[in-house]
Each structure stands twice: as C-alpha cells, then as structure tokens.
C-alpha cells in the first residue's frame, strides 16, 4: 500500500492503474477509522481492482462552533487499518492542497439537504458536496462507497451524482454496530463511560421503530412516537430530531407508502450522535 | 460523423474510443454555428483523436426576459458545419434529457462572476458552470475548447476546473471576426442592416483600446476612455460597460501591471453584443 499527500501523486498512480485496465474504488473518509470504514474498504476491494481511501478532515463541511479542531485524528493507525482492509493507496492531503485561498466555486444542494441534519448544520451538505466532487475528479473512480450511517449524506451524494452526471456508481453500505448496538462512529470517542452506556439508547430506539414498521405500521407519527418513547427514558439523551422522511424527497411523510428513512439525532452530553433505518414497504 | 441525443449514447461512443486509446476533445456550443465555433472544432480535431460537439441551448444560463425562446436554431446546418470542421460526434440533448424535474444541485461561482456580464446577467455564469460541469462528466474529455469572445465565461470555466479539479485542459481560442471586424456571434443574426453596420463600432473601439495598451499606456482609465470615445460616436450604440479587469480576479484595475482583460458590452438596438481583448504587459 502507498500513501500520497498531493493531487498530482494520486493522478499519476490512478493513471498507471487505468493504463493497466484496472478498475478503481474510492472510500472517502475523515480518518480515525473504525470497523464501519473498514467494511467500506473491504466492500470496495471485493468489487474493484484497486481501492483509494481518502483521509481528510474537510473544513468546508464543519460549521462555526462545530468540532473541526477537536475531531479525532490518528493517521498512523488509519494507515494500518487501510492496509489490513485491502486499500492500495491512501490520499491524505492538507487543507492547502485541497483548497485554493481564492477559491470561488461552491456546490449547493437544495431541497433534500434542508431537513434532518440540514436544519442544525446549514453549511454541512454543501461542504460535503464540494469535497466529494473534488475527490471524484481527482480519483476518477468507477465506484465510491459511503456508509448508510450518514444516511442523508448518502442521499445527497447520490443526488449530486445524478444531477451533475458524475460517471461512477455510488454504493451504500450497512451500518456497522458495536456489540451493544451503538452505531460505530469516530465521534463515539468523545463519550465518557457513563455517556457511552447512555448512547445505546439510540440503537434501541431505532430497533423499536424498525420493528413497528416491519409489523405493518404505516402511520409515520406512530413510528416517531415509538422511537421517541425509548429515547425519553434516557436522562442523558437530548433529542434533536426524530423523523420519517421520503428517501426521494427527504421531506417528512404522514404515511409510509414508498421507501422511507427513519433518522434520529441525539445529543449525549455535548456529543451529537445519529442513527437510522431505511424501510421499503414494498420490499 | 454521428449524432446522439441521449447521455447513454454519448457514454457508449466515448467509452468505445477510450478502449481504443483515443483522446477526446469537447466543444460545448449552443448551436447556430459560425466560423468561430468551426475554429474551435478544427483546433480540437488537430489536438485530439476524436471531437464531440455539444449543441444545446441551455435554459439555466438564460435569465428572465433574456432570449432563450428566440435564440436562433438550425440543427441541420449545424450538423454539416460540425462534419466539415472534423467532429466525430454531435450531442444534441433535449432539456428533459439534461435536467431532472426535481434537480436540486447547483454550482455557484462567486467573485469572478460578479463584474462585467455578471452585473446584468446574475444567474448566467452559474447556469454556464452547471451545464459545463455536466458536459464534462458526460463526455469526460481530455480537453475542452472555448472561445475568447466569451472572455468572462472562459475565465469562469477555468476557475471551476481548477477549484473542482476536473481532470481536463481548458483551451481558449482567439476571436474570429467578420471582414469588417465584427466578432462572429450567433446573435449577430438579430441585427437589421443598419444595426449590422453600426455594430462595427465594437471592434473599432476594441482596436483603439488595444493599440493604446500596446503603445505602453498603463492607466486603465485612459484605455477605458479611448474605447468609450469610439463607442459614443455611434448613435445606435448603447454602452452597458467598458472595463479593464484583472484576468485573475476579474476586478477592475487602476493600473495595468499584470495580465488584464478589457471587455465591453454594448446594445445595438435590442441586441446585446460583447467584444474584448486580453493584454499582458509582460508579454
């Protein structure tokens, strides 16, 4: 496995693979990798000849007062995990390599970025779109792999790829969980031992909502109520949102008649955690 | 030469060329081709194995009250000109093929889109960026060819390519003029015979400004004054702007100390025409 910190190095490496007729997969990450990321890399390695993992804490997707500075970083450990999962190249640029001081191009995602996390993180998805578009153009992959954990991000990236005609496939991969159900997240490291115990309430709430949907409940408010009933039992949990939205429009639905996403955001202490399930009533 | 109206056909054709190791050039146009476009196609054919010409009157780059509906169209004549100039494929999609009804992704160009034409056409360059980004992703060319006649568009596209890391070269090509100096433009067809005569004032004004710059004048207001002095002699000419801007920032300069663009926009009757010259004091 190799590592590259410049765009030129990545292009040279990928260009050489292309001349050999190799297919290329991309796994964009912000580093501090966990088993969720590893599952993306393993999936990419199973489907593509060569896998590029980007490790870049992207400043444009953090809003004022968010955790850009404190976001956890451990590049040496990330390298070992990438290699173990089957990556061929790790791209770890500096912010200066990625962004010109006089950059003037932005990408805006309307509509589907406005609900859920978009409400409390108004610049987040535009920043995601910008860095993902750049990575697509730098790596020119055949496929890019994103976790379903960041469900709205996955839907936003799919929409950008569709609207701008990026010539690649987006592959969504299932949430990877701890033994007690907590969705793997780099931000779990922020949790104190008490908060770590309390954080299991998210996955218990999600399971309750999912069970109700699978039992045939089609009233979205009943699903939201069931999820909320679990969350409010945890004194350390401060609920930001519990929503059932259309997978297509990312707008709240009354009745579940087409594929939906049930998504929650909850603060445990000062740490903001998210979890979700996708549900298709026709499946 | 072939013609394609769907994105899938273009991808199939370009994919086949790629497998044969061919390089690909793209010439994006709005059709109603003239010798200016033909010079772009010929340049692309000289530098690339295969040339794709897109013919698409892009609705997203027209503002309310602009000439989207009346913009001249003659696809059969365009096909003949493309073939004569050496194109291998003409891509002529419908608006429905290019834009999803629920599209939610936009590209915004700040700063360098705000002066010159950006003042009177506030949505124009965002629309140009959107369609050009889509064409880049559909055709995946090695190089794309743009006329210097649309000077701000050329600078905007270069900036977008730089900021979003599109993996291709942008080639700017010189203005092609009628025998009497008028810059070739599809919109010249709007001019009545009297207006057509009056329209020569643009190129005479540009020549006056260029001669002054080449004689060593470094005061931008003197250049603007010389250009304006010519324009005001034509009673049918209504000046929208005469500006000398930095090629890098597209902001007005006082003194010419780095590469500049001197650009003008003038209405002759109801027809809006533009012209310009690039000048580098170090060249």
TrEMBL record, chains A, B:
Keywords: ATP-binding, Cytoplasm, Ligase, Nucleotide-binding, Pantothenate biosynthesis. ATP binds at residues 30-37, 147-150, 176, 184-187. Coiled coil: none annotated. The active site is at residue 37. (R)-pantoate binds at residues 61, 153. It comes from the Bacteria. It is found in: Cytoplasm. Its main location: cytoplasm. Pathway: Cofactor biosynthesis; (R)-pantothenate biosynthesis; (R)-pantothenate from (R)-pantoate and beta-alanine: step 1/1. GO terms for molecular function: pantoate-beta-alanine ligase activity. Beta-alanine binds at residue 61. The reaction proceeds by a bi uni uni bi ping pong mechanism. Homodimer. Catalyzes the condensation of pantoate with beta-alanine in an ATP-dependent reaction via a pantoyl-adenylate intermediate. This is Pantothenate synthetase. It comes from Xiamenia xianingshaonis.
């Amino acid at each position: 496995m190799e590592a590259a910190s410049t765009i030129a190095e990545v292009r040279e490496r990928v260009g050489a693979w292309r001349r050999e007729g190799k297919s290329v997969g991309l796994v964009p990450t912000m580093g501090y990798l966990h088993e969720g990321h590893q599952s993306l890399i393993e999936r990419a390695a199973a489907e593509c000849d060569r896998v590029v993992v980007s490790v870049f804490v992207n400043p444009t997707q953090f809003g004022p007062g968010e955790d850009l500075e404190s976001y956890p970083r451990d590049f040496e450990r990330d390298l070992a995990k990438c290699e173990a999962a089957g990556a061929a190249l790790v791209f770890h640029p500096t912010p200066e390599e990625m962004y010109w001081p006089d950059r003037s191009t932005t990408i805006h995602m309307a509509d589907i970025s406005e609900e859920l996390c978009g409400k409390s993180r108004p610049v987040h998805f535009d920043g995601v779109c910008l860095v993902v578009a750049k990575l697509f153009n730098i790596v020119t992959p055949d496929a890019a792999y994103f976790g379903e954990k960041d469900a709205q991000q996955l839907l936003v990236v799919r929409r950008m790829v569709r609207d701008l005609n990026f010539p690649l496939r987006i592959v969504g991969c299932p949430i990877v969980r701890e033994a007690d159900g907590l969705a793997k997240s780099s931000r779990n490291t922020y949790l104190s031992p008490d908060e770590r115990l309390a954080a299991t309430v998210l996955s218990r709430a999600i399971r309750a909502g999912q069970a109700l949907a699978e039992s045939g409940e089609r009233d979205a408010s009943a699903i939201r109520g069931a999820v909320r009933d679990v969350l409010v039992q945890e004194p350390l949990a401060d609920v930001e949102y519990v929503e059932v939205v259309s997978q297509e429009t990312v707008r709240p639905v009354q009745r579940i008649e087409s594929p939906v996403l049930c998504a929650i955001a909850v603060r445990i202490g000062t740490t903001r955690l998210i979890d979700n399930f996708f549900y298709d009533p026709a499946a």
